[in-house]
Design brief:
Layout (H helix, E strand, L loop, with lengths): L5 E6 L4 H16 L2 E9 L10 H21 L10 E7 L2 H11 L4 E5 L9 H5 L1 H7 L4 E4 L10 E5 L5 H13 L6 E8 L4 H20 L3 E8 L7 H11 L4 E5 L14 H8 L4 E4 L3
Parallel strand pairs: 1-2, 1-4, 2-3, 4-5, 6-7, 6-9, 7-8, 9-10
Antiparallel strand pairs: 5-10
Helix pairs in contact: 8-9
Length: about 280
Amino acid sequence: MTSSNFNILIPTDFSAQSIQAIKYAQVISRNIKSSIHFINVIEASELNQENDTDVQEELIKKSIRLKLENILNSAIDGEEIISYKLFILRGKVYDRILETAALVNAKLLILGCNSADNSRNRFLGSNALRIMRSCPVPVLSSNQYSQLRSFKNIILPIDLSKETKDKLNKAIALAKLDSNIILNIINVVFDADEFLINRLGQQLLKVKNSIEKNKVNYTAEIIKASSGYESLGEIITDYAKKIEGDVIILMTQQEISNTPYFVSSLAQEVINISEVPVITIAPN
């Protein structure tokens, strides 16, 4: 382990998806020495304005602390999280999460994503996409299909866009946290045009040089899409599954495509269909 200041922030509403986020933090902590912080936000709709809101808030906070303690004391996956900090704040979920991420100098947010519509689960349904789009901190998301078993095999799709440099730099920073982490760089092409392939090859060479300067383990290849695939998202998720990848890193902003098959919301598509968790990075 090479990092002692890797702060993880987990917004939690105690849904199944947010509990899964806690498991993800445990997996990461096996590779990277981490400090874990939790945040639960009390929204105005949860308080009865006709009664003493301060008293209600204290009762809610007591219940939240008890719920979290019960979860953590149950030794999820056979391991207890002994050291952590819990923030219970009143306000707008989105605002409080970003404020707390800055306060604790978070290096990673872990979000459980769901589509539930009830008042508590709405917390991670309606706010997750907004957080991923604008949060300056990388966001690891989980859906009902994804599982994180280790944090060693990172898939990094690249293209010819300027956003690739932002993504590469942050991926390298993550990889440098542990000597066992491998970056698997892929560039997918649908078009067999030799000029395009040469451009991608030149860019891949620059990427490889940058990674080698940082002494990070990696693989790199250009993948020519075969028939039967309708989107780049399908190719990326299939590749990640094939090589038993642990996480996929994507930009939240649409990266400029060199093919007509590029979907308009790649990150959202991959998050929805992938069995491999996704880390999204908002461009600088």
